[in-house]
Amino acid sequence: MELLNLHRIVDVTAAEGPGLRCAVWTQGCSVRCPGCFNPQTWTTRGGTLMPWPDLVARVLAVEGIEGVTLLGGEPFDQAAPLGRFASAVRSEGLSVMTFTGHVLEDLPPSELLASTDLLVDGPFLADRPEPSRPWAGSANQRFHFLTDRYDESIFTTPNRLELTISPEGAIELNGFATTEVLEALLEGEHR
Ligand code: SF4
Fold first, then answer.
1. Model confidence over 121-169: pLDDT tens digits?
2. Alpha carbon of 34 to ligand 1 centroid (Å)
3. Residue 63 burial (CB < 10 Å; 0-12/13-18/19+)?
4. Does residue 181 belong to any structural domain of this protein?
5. Of 18, 62, 64, 129, which one is least surrounded by beta carbons within 10 A?
């Protein structure tokens, strides 16, 4: 069985797509956009290898989520096992939102594409920051409503930056923030 190569899993987040979702970052990205916020996901080394049915079981055990979001890395670098995962969770009623650094027109048919309700496509362009739409990193990226699960009403969701502090004191940030926003947050911390 082909294994998934994963960077990180957050069981429940409100910052990575419509509603509450499980977010899965893949390890390995062949797109390599200059200025990428996740360059640590470029290499295929150092990820967590997992059979896709194990990820299905983990996600289905999470209560209260409406779907999963697949982020990079580049999810379509692992289109075969990730497609099986996406198809399995969708058949249990969860929605699937997938980010890709490719444009839709360049993606070959795959089970992952066929099992995606909402696709956000296109490379991150550092010189074209996204002014308003939630979840998009740059203004060139497009939202494709590939099924009737979602529509443009999702754009009324505010962009969120979610900060989680574990009992051990580890801090995790989810969501998208510009460098300016992050700097403002850090300044606030020092006041
Ligand atoms: S596709 Fe995503 S992870 Fe890959 S380089 Fe571009 S922004 Fe970074």
1. 999 999 999 988 999 999 999 999 999 999 999 998 766 677 777 777 7
2. 8
3. exposed
4. no
5. 64
